[in-house]
Specification:
alpha+beta; 11 helices
């Protein structure tokens, strides 16, 4: 999840490091003193505690321009990550989502959400929205946003009566909640990489599989308990190593974490372990279900290479397309890591060029114009609406009426004999076709070739040859493409499988293999000879093959069917490249290990419950394992 204090230190660092490290809540970067002086000279700061309808007071920092000769919009950011620096005389180096937006001279309001830092109350992760069941006096993040806006309008002068909300990741969740049952003055919402469902996707799970390294890295610091109102949280337990793969493998079963390194102090870790299926606990926290008849205009933005919250942008867009059609909305996805478009320029990502400073393009051509247009009616030639998508491979921006593109069509890519993948289905002659591998939880397939304790921010485009050389990874390659193929939209795989165990995971990776003589894409970049560029991974756990709300064991050695969802993508496999598909049964420690012996609750597994199992992937005419691709004509 995104911590604005860390990002203000420079998201460009993501281009120089492969690792997102633990964000200790008491570790704050040194402020840019020139920025602090500029903000101090332009704004007057005021700290207040705003009462909500239930009497709970939320700590709020208000920055009003010293020049009061004109009325200006209000920009509200609500965060669980602190509105530091605290103190009426302490100023930050920047206000708002983008560098230089504070030069507009608008009113900026930053608030600690309920139960965090200096705000009263109890903090709930992904606070359930009470929606139509809300009674007088009931509170959630929608009502807290409404009450905050109401107070600001009455108690802050020189505003133009229009409020815009913004936030990335966890703050993006609060933007999403705030645009539901919105205040009439709430005219514009900018949910950036929003969290919308912590079981189906985003930070904590991926189709129900537990995101181990990311969740542990975050929760050990963020969810430390507080005693009263505080400006800093205590630090969580130190790992003592940068080798996350070895550390987590050494820890063993998930049942050891809560009483072990978490020291019984991290309450939400225990909540996760108590709810392994997609039950009422998680469904109540799926904020996308409430995105209906939204009244503020919405600019929804995310990154194709976001390792933290890639699901939220897609699910929220889908929900709004279905249930909020009259809303002014625009959807933008670029070649960016988590939140990077707000700060960094991103002319490259990992080993690949983006062709131009794509982050700067977004801020200058979409982000700032949208704020000006929808909060000041200063639109010029800017047109708000539709979907703007970056097409990887060709490094082009493409505009569509909506996402997914209406002109896209389905094509089926089949797993075939002799390690091939093709658009031609298996024939009846391949009646006995199957591939097998042994999945050993003691030696799981790593998700990255990097050595990192956190989550490798650049794994979305990593060279997958480190995995394709393992015996427990099946590899299928197409012939060399004779023409470009653009995949644009949702993906999924349907695998016909069997296992000698009673539970199993299946990981499917769609990969773009470069030619054998591929040169670097930018000066100083690596050679790309036969580089296997990850395009999209997907994971599925066999126990949920009949639905996510209950777990059902596999029958050992009996064929069954598993659907593996992959997040949307827009990528062109260029002429001369190959399409590659990997199939494996572990992806560690990006997601937790499956014992491969059915247990009602994997979080309660013991080390002795883990066992090796032989996996069979069928590829016959009757059981044709395949990928469904959405491609452009």
């Amino acid at each position: 999840m995104f911590d604005p204090r860390v990002r203000m230190a420079g998201l460009a660092l993501l281009l120089a490091t492969a690792t997102t490290t633990a964000r200790a809540q008491n570790a704050r970067p040194a402020p840019d003193q020139s920025g602090v002086a500029r903000v101090t000279a332009q704004y007057v700061k005021r700290e207040v505690s705003i009462p909500m309808r239930d009497g709970t007071k939320l700590f709020t920092a208000i920055y009003v321009p010293r020049d009061s000769s004109k009325t200006v919009p209000i920009l509200l950011m609500r965060t669980p990550y602190s509105v530091a620096p605290y103190g009426a005389a302490a100023y930050p180096a920047q206000l708002g989502p983008f560098p230089d937006i504070d030069k507009e001279g608008w009113i900026f309001v930053n608030q600690d959400v309920r139960g965090r830092y200096m705000s009263e109350g109890y903090h709930q992760f992904m606070t359930p929205n009470r929606g139509p069941n809300r009674k007088s006096g009931d509170v959630d993040e929608s009502t807290d946003t409404y009450d905050t806006i109401e107070w600001i309008l009455k108690n802050v002068r020189h505003h133009n009566g229009r409020v815009g909300t913004w936030g990335n990741s966890a703050p993006g969740f609060f933007v999403t909640a705030g645009m539901i049952d919105a205040h009439p003055a709430h005219k514009f919402a900018y949910p950036s990489a929003p969290m919308v469902d912590w079981w189906m996707g985003d930070d904590r799970h991926m189709n129900g599989l537990f995101k181990l390294s990311q969740t542990y890295n975050f929760m050990r610091n963020f969810d430390q308990p507080r005693n009263g109102l505080i400006t800093q949280y205590p630090a969580g337990p130190a790992s003592g190593t940068t080798d996350g793969y070895a550390w987590h493998l050494g820890m063993g079963a998930l049942s050891k974490y809560g009483p072990g390194p978490m020291q019984g102090r991290v309450a939400f870790w225990d909540s996760i372990a108590a709810h392994p299926d997609y039950d009422a606990f998680w469904q109540a926290r799926a904020i996308w279900k409430h995105a209906k008849n939204i009244t503020p205009a919405v600019l929804l933005v995310g990154g194709w290479y976001d390792v933290e919250d890639p699901y939220g942008m897609l699910r929220l867009n889908e929900s709004m397309q279905a249930d909020s059609r009259s809303t002014k909305q625009m959807f933008v996805v670029g070649p960016w890591s988590h939140g990077g478009w707000n700060r960094a320029d991103f002319p490259t990502f990992g080993a690949f060029t983006n062709g131009s400073p794509t982050g700067k393009f977004f801020r200058d051509s979409i982000g700032m114009p949208a704020f000006r247009c929808l909060l000041k009616d200063d639109c010029g030639n800017f047109q708000f609406g539709g979907a703007l998508m970056f097409e990887a491979g060709t490094n082009q921006w493409k505009r569509f009426e909506a996402w997914p593109p209406k002109q896209a069509r389905q094509r089926t890519l089949y797993l075939r004999e002799q390690g091939r993948v093709a658009f031609d289905a298996p024939t009846a002659a391949a009646a006995a076709g199957a591939d097998r591998y042994v999945s050993d939880p003691a030696k799981p397939v790593p998700y990255t070739m990097g050595t990192t304790f956190g989550f490798n921010a650049q794994y979305p485009t990593e060279d997958q040859r480190f995995a394709s050389r393992r015996p427990d990874v099946l590899v299928y390659r197409s012939e060399v493409l004779t023409e470009d193929l653009t995949v644009a939209g949702p993906l999924s795989a349907l695998l016909h499988v069997a296992s000698t165990g009673t539970d199993a995971d299946f990981v499917v990776k769609l990969i773009d293999q470069y030619p054998n003589d591929a040169a670097p894409e930018f000066e100083g970049g690596p050679r790309l000879d036969a580089y296997e560029r990850l395009v999209r991974p997907g994971v599925a756990r066999a126990r949920w093959r009949k639905g996510y709300t209950r777990s059902i064991p596999l029958v050992a050695n009996v064929a069954d069917t598993i659907r593996v969802p992959l997040d949307d993508v827009m990528h062109t496999f260029k002429k001369g490249h190959r399409i590659v598909v990997h199939v494996q049964s572990s992806w560690y420690p990006a997601v937790d290990r499956n014992p491969q012996r059915f247990l009602p609750n994997i979080y309660k597994a013991k080390d002795s419950d883990f066992q090796s199992a032989t996996m069979t992937i069928y590829r016959t005419a009757a059981r044709a394992s395949h990928l469904s691709l959405t491609v452009m004509p």
